[in-house]
Amino acid sequence: RYEGCIKSRYVNNIIAYKGEEFVCLQETKLKVITEEKCFFVWGNNRVGWLHNEGVNGCGSLLSMWNLDSFDLQCNKQSGNYECGYYVM
After folding, report:
1. What highest taxon heads this organism's lineage (predicted)?
2. Contact at 8 Å (CB) between 20 and 43?
């Protein structure tokens, strides 16, 4: 749990420093991701997100984006595959 907190804070610092608008994290190893966790990682609540848990944590994907910059139009998930269509 402590290691996960360090990784979350590290990603949060990158997003804050670089001003990223869209981030995709691979192999998160998390089976459940909450809205609060995404708010913490992103740094505010203006974040949209999708999580594909993969199989036993392998192949898991977490996509996060700035709601002021992108709008998710559709999303398809199948197994370890996730595809989203976003509009700026």
Report:
1. Eukaryota
2. no
